Amino acid sequence: MMLKIKRVPTVVSNYQKDEAGDSSRPVGGCGRNCLKACCIPDAKLPLYAFKKVNGKDLAMHECGEPPVAFLDSLLLGEWEERMQRGLFRYDVTACETKVIPGEYGFVAQLNEGRHLKKRPTEFRVDKVLQPFDGNKFNFTKVGQEEVIFQFEASDDGQIQFFPNAPVDVDNSPSFVAINVSPIEYGHVLLIPRIFECLPQRIDRESFLLALHMAVEADNPYFRLGYNSLGAFATINHLHFQAYYLALPFPIEKAPTKKIANLNGGVKISELLKYPVRGLVFEGGDTLEDLSNVVSDACICLQNNNIPFNVLISDCGKQVFLLPQCYAEKQALGEVDAELLDTQVNPAVWEISGHMVLKRKKDYDEASEGNAWRLLAEVSLSEERFQEVNDLIFEAIGCSELDDNVQCDKEVDAVSTSAHPTVVVAGSKECVVLQ
Amino acid sequence: MLMDLCAQIQRSFDQLYTCHARHSLDELPDSFTITDPHIPGHPIVFASPGFLKLTGYARCEVLGQTAAVFQGPGTSRRSVMEIREAVREERTAQVVLLNYRKDGTPFWMLFRVSPVFSGDGGAVVHFVAVQVPLHKKDGSGVRDFGFGCCRKEVCTDSLSELGRVCSVEQVLERDVIELESEEPCEASEEEMRSAVTAMDNIFSVLTHFSEATGRLVCRKRCSIPDVGLLSTSLIISLGRIKQSFVLTNPHLPDMPIVYASDAFLELTGYGRNEVLGRNCRFLGGTDTDTSTLYLIKESIKAEQPCTVRILNYRKDESSFWNFLHISPVRDASGKVAYFVGVQIEESNKNDDRQCLSPEKRQLSVVGVVKVAVRSLSMSAGSSKS
What we know:
heterodimer, A: 434 residues, alpha+beta, HIT family, subunit A, twelve-stranded mixed β-sheet, three-stranded mixed β-sheet, 17 strands, 23% helix, disordered C terminus, B: 385 residues, Beta-Lactamase, 3 domains, five-stranded antiparallel β-sheet, 13 helices, elongated, FMN (chain B), flavoprotein (chain B), serine/threonine-protein kinase (chain B), PAS-like_dom_sf (chain B)
């Protein structure tokens, strides 16, 4: 049986046509600045090259000012410019929003415009990995004006910024583009190696790029998110989302319990007292250590066909991984009609505690209890969650060879994360397992 | 710039409490700091001798710094978030926090922070933070691992002694230190009382000396906040913006300036108190084009952004061409709460050191202001709602 749900797809680009029956849609014929071969040779887009930090440098303070502040100057400046040019479908700052009273502070937004003028479309939700389909909408079809800059690693170890850089297609550039249906100010999409047309699927290199973006933003309120297929991603072209909301998210406030320490300094905890069960990854001697562990966990979920969402928070220091089963339940008719009526699609932002509501009634009646009830439906059962955890731990244990990863699940005992001033010892000896 | 900050820090303290208050505070045995949310970065403006002893820093190394300097890899992000929330909501908070000394060694402390309110106007003028160092109690946490031999040393925080132990044991020692730093520590009743007492003593000094300056401070908000008063968290957010801009409030009579950035004061030559509460028209003069003023007025009426080139005058009456961008700023209700005006002096417009065009630089200010105003007006708990 093939599981499908019907939902209104989110319009992330002005070039996104109604997908239903668009097989006859004309292709090519360009008069505008598109990203195709006809226009790209003349394209000039800002290019921000971040500095790759190694190991302990992470904690060191930067010397000297970067040429441009990534978030406050570059991203917000370009975003506001697109706003004043009228590229967005609505002014998100005119959408009423509030913190719902309660212990967690769920954030509710009333957004009546986000889903207008779109017909519900069928989405297959039982396959987390699906091949890229060039006939469907993908980000190579957006116009240049929706791309705000190129984002890559610097080749000389310093942050570099070029206001007008050519687009070198052969060099696999990654783009940051606006989302024309923003759910908060600064809502953008990071599209790793856009011209490689990767399907929505986590790989180590792309995930590290997303973590780097969180580091460059250098602001705990600028977070990145990822939805797998089957967990409310609507576009099967690899992308992360990000936006700026200067409030803590409920998921960031939830207590955690440490369940494992890995070599490389990555600590894994389990979320407690939160409606959605999930794992929290922190630490890491290098950004790459953290990135690899999380990527491997995601890859494991993908390979096991388990839909999931990822939230990168706290400037890339903390990553939440949430396997989910809402779409599957929805397809099987197991979700309460009352919840379905709200048409809230529990993707990464909703799971993190930021609820975008389409009906005034739901907004007015929004309560912590309602938010909790919806999110509880998203969560795996305790039993299933433990099964999934076992898969993940097996995967991150096996992905590195034997003595590199040492996992002390449930023991909660030996830590190998080292503070720089503490006696330096080879990380292997630190694990005492007599 | 550095001198500037030093002067600002001194003024921040002396204006409210006089320099004599320093001596009295120096005599208190406790570890505490005072911070000023009105200076960009919300820096420390006073650090007690107890604090310096606890952290191993010299006073000059600490003044002007933010609390983040004392945090490290083992510091709980959630606890930091709790403090940030308390500052935003202008209330007292108490958390157990892992901090780091200058030499990098971690220590647990009970951290208690309280706002200091101005007696008139009800604005938050400073925050006081008290740090009570915590000691691990016997029987807590790590005994199970059989490393009893080194527990005492760890308990007394004398990490330096660990450097002397033989190399075979070093590995074990290290794990215990790490556990010691990761394992959350709890504060005893006595430690909590001591934080409250320290806070009481500090406030009595501050209140006493503030009487002398005529700018009485208090521990509770003792008057209703002035209409149009910006919340502390908004001021902290706006303080990060280095460019020249003002915020005006269209809901107050004659649409006065309610916030002016340091760069604006530098550009125009006015003091902050000379511009707050006034309509922006004082920047105009005899040769200012009235059709430009009309254009601005129409844009404001239509709640639309606009960019103009307008002749403005400084306090010393010298004139300059102001490349001015004005944009409406909405709060969480979705309604226009302020207008932001971003000024670039035309002669500095094509500054070679700047990577971004002047237009983009202005729009980035608008973006930062929009996020700050919108986000900080979302919670009903904030002081202005």
